[in-house]
Amino acid sequence: MAVPAKNIPAPDLVPVRRALLSVFDKTGLIDFARALAAAGVELVSTGGTAKAIAEAGLAVRDVADLTGFPEIMDGRVKTLHPSVHGALLGIRDDAEHAKAMRDHHIEPIDLVVCNLYPFEEVRRSGAGYASIVENIDIGGPAMIRASAKNHAYVAIVTDPADYASVVNAMEMNLGSLSLDFRKMLAAKAFARTATYDAAISGWFAEALAIEHPAWRAFGGRLDQVMRYGENPHQGAGFYLSGDRRPGVATARQLQGKQLSYNNINDTDAAFELVGEFDSARSAAIAIIKHANPCGVAEGSSLKAAYAKALACDPISAFGGIVAMNRILDAEAAQEIVKTFTEVIIAPDATDEAAAIVAAKKNLRLLVAGGLPDPRAAGTMVKSVAGGLLVQSRDNAVVDDLELKVVTKRAPTPAEMADLKFAFRVAKHVKSNAIVYARDGATVGIGAGQMSRVDSSRIAARKALDAAEAAGLAEPLTKGSVVASDAFFPFADGLLSAIEAGATAVIQPGGSMRDEDVIAAADEHGIAMVFTGVRHFRH
Predict the structure, then answer these.
(1) Which residues contact 174 (CB under 8 A, 6 or more apart)?
(2) Which of 67, 73, 171, 450 suits 127 as a labelling partner, its CA being 20 to 30 A distant?
(3) Residue 14, number of CB atoms within 10 A of its CB
(4) Confidence tier at 85 by pLDDT (50, 70, 90)
């Protein structure tokens, strides 16, 4: 049964006469405290916050003076007291609450300024278990939630970015804050504690290797409001989870207009794909359109890799995203800007390369500071009606798999190198995925079809179109290898690849008709390798 409400109307304007300040992040604290003091607000504070305010020459009352009880247990217990929480939770227009406050000498608090121990930062720093636990704030969230619940009388400020708006609101209302303003602050406060608790519960699940906790929470901080989502009639915002995995969320944008929803989605897909390629081994380029690669290649330089990637599907590359696994240099930048491109993302960029890109004022250039680790564990979340689908990141890497040759003919060393290349790419192509590769470059990609044989035919068709555009006598699928993200349920998909010119195949295997597919490969002298790992991507 629900707790009954008192149904006492909240006042519109509440004068701010007493403020409790207890913050870990002291950004803007002194200026804010000075503005409050100038408005005649009594300042009450705790520990290091009180010390900082006093050192600035402002009068401040220690919270122990309110509670009659000193801070104890290394500051773990200081605000967890009826004199504080009664001051925050008391309904001042309720006769019983008002009497309890008078009887117990509880002085009302009108404004609370509180931010939390840096749990998220300490967790990301790689600190030990004990240090992480010590940075779980208890008193802070309790005060924030108490103040937010009683926003009818108390204003709660959790973000230094809101200090100026609080001062302005008080000036406009002659020292008071409106109910609408207090509601807005309360909503933000509850969102902050929810995100904080999500980070804590997520860390505990990770630390204790609980793969599927009974309750699961995810949180994030708004980074930007998008102009729209996938389509103009959809609203969208970009939230940061705090994960430091190099990518679009952690990257620094050197130039260009604001990223769109689709830009962010596609750039993430591009950088995750190119992260599969070891930068110490070779340069690699991935060109992405609508979250699918339209060209991927390795080369002796970024310029060489870009030329090979672009040749796979130059039409689709128009307006695409270009990702690379090495520092963007001037030579590569000069080639990339010749084709209309939405976003370039790289671990870094030389000054000369940045200057070349700057000539295209709308082209976004992002530097991520590193590459995502394809082997790293992680969590992926997708919303469905009424729930969330949560799974571990697909961190299987072809170099770590036990590859099994299942045909009479084994791949040549050159074919095996291309098979591994193609399977790396297939991992990042929407299912059903078919990838033709030759000499360290994609030469045909079929993505997202309901039938695997359709994907194979589309990839071959694109290879024909690319050959015509390049003036080649035959498509580059002739003499290529082919990768499939999942097993061939029938031999028809394989036969389509053979017809396109593939000489070797890599696929997970595991079909009831594997023997038929292997027999078809043997009949045509094709080498086939099973990986034992599927890479569906929806």
Answers:
(1) none
(2) 73
(3) 24
(4) confident
The upper half-sphere exposure of residue 117, i.e. CA atoms within 13 Å in the direction of its Cβ, equals 20
H or E stretch including 14? strand 13-15
**507, two tokens:** 């696929």
Q: Give me the count of residues in the chain.
A: 538
Residues 6+ apart with CB under 8 A from 97: 90, 91
CA distance 186 to 147: 8
Q: Work out the burial of residue 440: count CB atoms within 10 Å of its CB; fewer than 13 is exposed, 13-18 middle, 19 or more buried.
A: buried
Distance CA 190, CA 465 (A): 55
250 neighbors 281 (Cβ within 8 angstroms): no
Q: What is the tens place of the pLDDT at every residue in 442-489?
A: 999 999 899 888 998 898 898 898 888 888 888 989 999 999 999 988
Give the tens place of pLDDT for each residue, 133-183: 999 999 899 999 999 999 999 999 999 999 999 999 999 999 999 999 999
Could you write out the DSSP letters of every residue in 79-116? S-SHHHHHHHH--TTSHHHHHHHHHTTPPP--EEEE--
Known catalytic membership, residue 149:
yes
* Angstrom distance (rounded) from CA 153 to CA 86: 12
- CA–CA separation, 251 vs 434, rounded Å? 31
| Separation between Cα atoms, residue 427 and residue 89, nearest integer Å | 54
**Best CA proximity match to 342, nearest among 318, 326, 358:** 318
Q: Can you tell me whether residue 528 is helix, strand or coil?
A: strand
Contact 347, 295 (CB under 8 A): no
Spot the catalytic one: 26, 81, 149, 524: 149
Structure tokens at 514: 């594997």
Catalytically annotated residue among 26, 81, 183, 290: 290
How many C-beta atoms lie closer than 10 Å to residue 68's C-beta?
Answer: 9
Helix (H) / strand (E) containing 156: strand 155-157
Under DSSP, is residue 514 helix (H, G, I), strand (E, B) or coil? helix
Tokens 């079929």 locate to 446
Which residue is listed with tokens 């050959």?
Answer: 467
Q: Which amino acid is at 151?
A: H
**Residues 486 and 532 sit within 8 Å (Cβ to Cβ):** no
